[in-house]
């Protein structure tokens, strides 16, 4: 069993920044890749970024590349997502998920590869 708790969401103007956190407990956090996904109203959940267990391999969706940065601090059991130059179309609930398999260099960009999710944190970007 693992628990994930997202935080750091809020209301920001377009062009602004937020830093999301995903705090984990209940499993050897440092062995698992973590992914960030988001879901806007009426839309499917979409991949945003992912980081493998060591932090040595990172993926971004094309839409956020160059503006978002994912990182992790295994000593604090936390993954971060720094989001800069936010756009109003990025208003969504942001979720973090823990990868099913441990010690993998590859982290999936599809939600079926994750077996634990947080409750999400709302990010609202005003234009």
Radius of gyration over C-alpha positions, nearest whole angstrom: 13 Å
What is the global morphology? globular
The sequence of SSEs as H and E is: EEEEEEEEEEE
Number of helices: 0
Helix/strand structural class: mainly beta
Amount of helix: under 10%
Q: How many extended strands?
A: 11
* Unreliable stretches: none
Largest sheet: 7 strands, mixed
- Terminal CA distance reads 40 Å
Portion in strands: over 45%
Instruction: Give the overall pLDDT as a whole number.
Output: 95
Describe this structure as you would to a colleague.
The chain has about 130 residues and is mainly beta. It is about 0% helix and about 55% strand. The protein is built from no helices and 11 strands. The chain has strands at about 5, 10-15, 20-25, 30-40, 45-50, 60, 70-75, 80-85, 90-100, 115, 120-125. Strands 2, 4, 5, 6, 9, 10 and 11 form a 7-stranded mixed β-sheet that branches. Strands 1-3-8-7 form a 4-stranded antiparallel β-sheet, with no helix packed on it. The chain is globular and about 40 Å long. The model has no long low-confidence stretch (mean pLDDT about 95).
Question: Gist?
Answer:
With 127 residues, this protein is mainly beta. It has strands spanning 3-7, 10-13, 18-25, 32-39, 46-51, 58-60, 68-73, 78-83, 92-102, 114-117, 121-126. Strands 2, 4, 5, 6, 9, 10 and 11 form a seven-stranded mixed β-sheet that branches. A four-stranded antiparallel β-sheet has the order 1-3-8-7, with no helix packed on it.
């Amino acid at each position: 069993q693992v628990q994930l708790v997202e935080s750091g969401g809020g209301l920001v103007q377009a062009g602004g920044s937020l830093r999301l956190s995903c705090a984990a407990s209940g499993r050897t956090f440092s062995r698992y890749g973590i992914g960030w996904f988001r879901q806007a109203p009426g839309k499917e959940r979409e991949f945003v970024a992912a980081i493998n267990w060591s932090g040595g391999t990172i993926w971004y969706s094309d839409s956020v590349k160059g503006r978002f940065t994912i990182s992790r601090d295994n000593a604090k059991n936390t993954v971060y997502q720094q989001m800069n130059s936010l756009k109003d179309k990025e208003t969504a609930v942001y979720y973090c998920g823990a990868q099913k398999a441990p010690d993998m260099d590859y982290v999936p960009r599809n939600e079926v590869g994750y077996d634990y999710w947080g409750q999400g944190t709302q990010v609202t970007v005003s234009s």
